[in-house]
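quick q for whoever's on today - can somebody do inverse folding on this one?? i tried earlier but teh output was garbage lol. tokens:
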């Protein structure tokens, strides 16, 4: 009778790329690409003439901050989200969508066009609008959630 040799069964190992920070980096990159494409699309739909007030960038930044306020409350207070949801949507999509680098370039261009008052107004309005949007969205979302639970 022939004797069958059995090798010990080894558990399959997860590839290194799928452990640790690899998946996080991948979802941030994917989300960032999607958010940046959405921002670029907004700029194509509503272009800002040279020297004019950059309403599109302001709108994108305030809208993105509003969504961040809602999203952060939902994933911290309501959902038990997968570990990759926050980096994908928060850091990736919304980080790619909001464009504070363009905000800085817009201010520089306004200053170069001798529109100092417009540049300062834009600087202040964006900061105040973004902070107010996050606070208002988070507060409203929390109130709506507590009203549903009570």
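ok took a stab at it. sequence:
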């Amino acid at each position: 009778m022939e004797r069958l040799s059995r090798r010990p069964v080894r558990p399959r190992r997860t590839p290194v790329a799928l452990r640790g920070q690899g998946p996080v980096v991948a979802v941030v990159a994917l989300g960032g690409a999607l958010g940046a494409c959405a921002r670029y699309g907004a700029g194509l739909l509503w272009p800002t003439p040279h020297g004019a007030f950059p309403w599109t960038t302001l709108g994108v930044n305030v809208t993105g901050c509003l969504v961040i306020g809602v999203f952060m409350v939902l994933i911290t207070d309501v959902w038990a989200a997968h570990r990759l949801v926050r980096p994908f949507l928060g850091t990736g999509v919304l980080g790619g969508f909001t464009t504070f680098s363009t905000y800085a370039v817009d201010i520089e261009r306004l200053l170069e066009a001798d529109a100092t008052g417009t540049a300062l107004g834009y600087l202040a309005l964006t900061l105040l609008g973004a902070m107010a949007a996050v606070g208002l969205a988070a507060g409203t979302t929390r109130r709506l959630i507590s009203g549903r639970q009570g």
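fwiw The mean pLDDT is 89. also The first helix runs from residue 22 to 45. so keep that in mind when u check it
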